[in-house]
Amino acid sequence: MLDPREADKVVGGIDPAVQAELAHASAQGLVARGRQEGPADPELIQRLVSLVENEGLETLAQLWAHAPAQSLPGALWRVYALREWVRRDPRTVAERYKLGEQRQSVARVVAGAVDAPGPAEMLQLADAVLSGLFTGELDVALARAAAFARILSTGSALDADWLDGSDRRQAAAVTRRAESLLTTAEALDRAAALWRQGKLE
Fold first, then answer.
1. Total structural domains within the chain
2. Would you say residue 83 has pLDDT above 80?
3. 60 near 52, Cβ under 8 Å?
């Protein structure tokens, strides 16, 4: 559903240089706006968190999906896409999170989920992680998103192992999701490190 391979299929008719400029300008403007008015304006933060519902995933994909992973628009795309998966399928996300958190105890602490989170708690966590981009330290928010993705990657891999005996096709799809989530986690960790160095553009 939100696999980077699928994001690559989004067709754009914009010149790549213009597209890159738009991606960076829009990402920087979005973060700057949220950070400027952040905690003083919770309504604005909620609008920024709900950007996909208001603008559509395809709009964000056209803006940011092709941006390098180690860029601000690339990082924003990954966090918004992760939240959208949680929003669309909170039950599956909660199940895989529960599987993954048993193997990823450090990531669990960084992500900040409550004990035994259900679908509602997954939605709250996804919103909290995303709102942190606008109300807290951006590198911390990116690290939380990375930890969240890492736990889901582990949980997805475990789920794929269990499915392998009964539904190989589904197991292969879940394995690809696990690999994609791990790639996302690594990209977000690198983006957090670049932000701390003042190099995330």
1. 1
2. yes
3. yes
